[in-house]
Amino acid sequence: MEVELKFQSETRHIEFVTEVSDSLSKLVGFNETDRHRIALAVSESVANAVRHGNQFDTHKEVQVTFTATSDALQISVSDQGDGFDHSSLPDPRAPENLHKPGGRGVFIILNVMDSVGFNRMDGSMEVWMEKRLNL
Amino acid sequence: MKIEQRQVDGVSILSISGKITIGEGDIKVREKVADLLENGSNKLLMDIEGVNYIDSSGLTELVNCHSKTSDRGGQLKLLNPTPKVAELLFVTRLNSVFETFHDEGDAVASFA
């Protein structure tokens, strides 16, 4: 099953997207802990797309595509921003960064999902992620 | 998201329930802590047993509140994080920033 959502760059849409994420996670058969992890990763990536990617420009869209299979949920989150190089992001766990306010979103996504990819294209940025059922 | 406040032995206990997320609970937490610090309270204990969801923006607010409280010569500690929140504190190593308790009496006594 594939579900595609497109919406303006506003954080108020995050709750709806995480509700869709939770419904699809249930459908695949994830337990409550993994459903929470997936919703968190989706929420973080959409928040990044709205805030850092599209910079709250409501003329720009965020697109989220969920692909549910029998044993996994794949999610793609795209924005219309300039993108970023995830490998250059500082480690928020480093002692010098621990007390800094931000910089944890991508790190959390990388930690709670099984696979995460970043595709920087001309005029857009896609974060792709997957969670697999532990059968 | 709801915050209830009470005072025990000079410690301001904030019982928070609901979500601390971008645009939802993060600003309420910030305003409540700023208000307490403004009024001279700097022994702050956040009871987050009722927080069922926190994201990186929520963590950012907790870190900001911790820093502002320290700047005022005070301390901000956490009480009763749920396993989900505790996992996030562990993954981000913020468990090394926040002193965390599972018993209110022990937490209050630690401010003495």
Automatic annotation (TrEMBL), chain A:
Per the record's keyword annotation, is Transferase included, yes or no?
Answer: yes
Mind telling me which Gene3D superfamilies this protein's record contains? Answer: Histidine kinase-like ATPase, C-terminal domain
Print the keywords alphabetically. Answer: ATP-binding, Kinase, Nucleotide-binding, Serine/threonine-protein kinase, Transferase
Name all Histidine kinase/HSP90-like ATPase domain ranges: 9-131
> Which SUPFAM superfamilies does the record cross-reference, listed alphabetically?
ATPase domain of HSP90 chaperone/DNA topoisomerase II/histidine kinase
Source organism, top-level taxon: Bacteria
Gene Ontology molecular function, alphabetical: ATP binding
Pfam families of this UniProt entry?
HATPase_c_2
The record, for PANTHER family, names: ANTI-SIGMA-F FACTOR RSBW (PTHR35526:SF3), ANTI-SIGMA-F FACTOR RSBW-RELATED (PTHR35526)
Q: What is this protein called?
A: ATP-binding protein
Species for this entry: Microbulbifer taiwanensis
UniProtKB/TrEMBL annotation, chain B:
PROSITE patterns, per database record: STAS (PS50801)
CDD domains cross-referenced by the UniProt entry: STAS_anti-anti-sigma_factors (cd07043)
Every STAS domain range: 1-111
Supply the InterPro entries for this chain.
Anti-sigma_ant (IPR003658), STAS_dom (IPR002645), STAS_dom_sf (IPR036513)
One Pfam entry for this protein is STAS
Q: Where are the transmembrane segments?
A: none
Question: What family does the Swiss-Prot or TrEMBL record give for this protein?
Answer: Belongs to the anti-sigma-factor antagonist family.
Which PANTHER family does its entry note? ANTI-SIGMA FACTOR ANTAGONIST TM_1081-RELATED-RELATED (PTHR33495)
Q: What is this protein called?
A: Anti-sigma factor antagonist
